[in-house]
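Let us begin with a simple case.
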Amino acid sequence: MHLLSLLLVAVLPVASMARMHVHRNPQTHRSRHHNHSRSTVYKLQDKFQGQTFFDGWDFFTQADPTHGNVIYESKENAQDLAYVQPDGTAVLKVDNVSTVAPGGNRRSVRITSKASYNGALVIADFWRFAHGPTVWPAFWAVGPNWPNGGEIDIVEFVNEYTTNQNTLHTGTNGVCTSNPNVGPLYKSANGTATQSFTGNLVSTQCLSSGSNNNGCAFTDGEGSAGHPFNVAAGGVFATLWDDTQISIWRFERNQIPQDIQNGNPNPDSWGTPVALWSNDSCNIAASFQDLSLVINISICGDWAGADFNNGNNGGTCADAVANSTNYDWAQINVNYISVYQAA
């Protein structure tokens, strides 16, 4: 999770997302960075799926770095919160059964991949993603010694938001900003140059610290998160990062490219990404190193807590933790997560 401050998203007031990372150094997969080109072929390196899904992850059990009303359980204690269904779908959820006092902490899970990466194409298929009052779910990648190792937020929103946010966080070891006026333009099938992203650019300074933690962010369109995302049977998020760019695409269930379904992803055929950060304005190689994947569901905390009453919820976020029905939809269902490297 990250450290973010107040951010204005479209017409919805988005409060602060503050994150600090407590992260151990996992096993590292080293790979050379490759330029994204028409000739690039991607080879599968890791795939998290089915009954062995959780074998590739460590369970984070420390106090929530974002000050949430949450207890992150160990693998042994999370048998009811992190499991694989008979159909092979991996589930991560918040406890929606136990009695918790107002202002108390509720059980949840946060997992970190054992492997870390230096450049990758990450494709994640989610059948559903957690949402609900007080809920702060995320799928992201983070390096050691935050923010100096960098962070890429692939799926993140709070409460009952229905728009996803993509954000980068960097330290002082590399200059990194979002600049819509520089960088490569994606082209349509007829060769016409188009804008390099489809999302709404809401902040441009990626540098994150204790005093300024917005990061550089894009918001996706309506239905990219929350209840509408789940009603549409979820979708696929594809993240490409190398020395030249970090790009994030989202595909609805009925629009997943055939090359992804076949296991031969070709980003050049996917069209314009939702979010793009170019090496022209961001020193990607210096800013993003040894990133591990993370999936978690926090409760309240620095963003969901601060934004709680923007959804016309009564009382305080901390008090709402006592209502177990707030977590009936606080569940992430993962079909698979695949990590590819340029061959």
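The second case is a distinct protein. As before, the sequence precedes its structure tokens.
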Amino acid sequence: MESKGTLKDVSMDWKTGRMRLTFELESDVSSSIDKMKDKPLRIIAKQWREKRSLDANAYYWVLLSRLAEVAGISKPRAHNLMLRRYGQNLMIAGQMAYLVVPDTTEAEETALEAETFHIRPTSQVKQGKDGKAYRTYTVLAGSSTYDTKEMSELINGLVAECKEQGIETLPPEELARMMAEYEENHRKKETVQRTDG
């Protein structure tokens, strides 16, 4: 079960010493409650962020293709460069994820051309037991996991890079309209789900 909601009340059960949280949900989850009642649950509460728009995603890839063409590089390389500059770190259990890779030109080239993973080099280089140098990389989240705010940061960075190269981009108000349209469509979809639920 997943739903958008608001934390309404917090209390302490003084007998057990455990916290009690009360949430108000925006969608009807009554059909799921019976299956979960009195069973151990994994509960994760995070600040709600709207999912990103497919239009925004399409716009990102169109601009990225143009930038890659002008720069004479592959789309995967351009995408990895944008993620390194404007992307989000992958978080696992609230901690940044790191990867240690041989500190070689070949390893860096492989990372820049990768399509299935995204990493950003740090300045930390250590010598391994084998006598070779190893660089620590920060693991980056793939853009397909970004919410609206994170995707906006990525697109705004890409737009700035495109402008520097003389590549035509949408006016800021058109980009804002595209993101607002997505959020409005998302709200309508949630309303329909609540009334159908």
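DSSP finds six helices and seven strands in the chain. The mean pLDDT is 87.
Keep these points in mind for the review questions at the end of the chapter.
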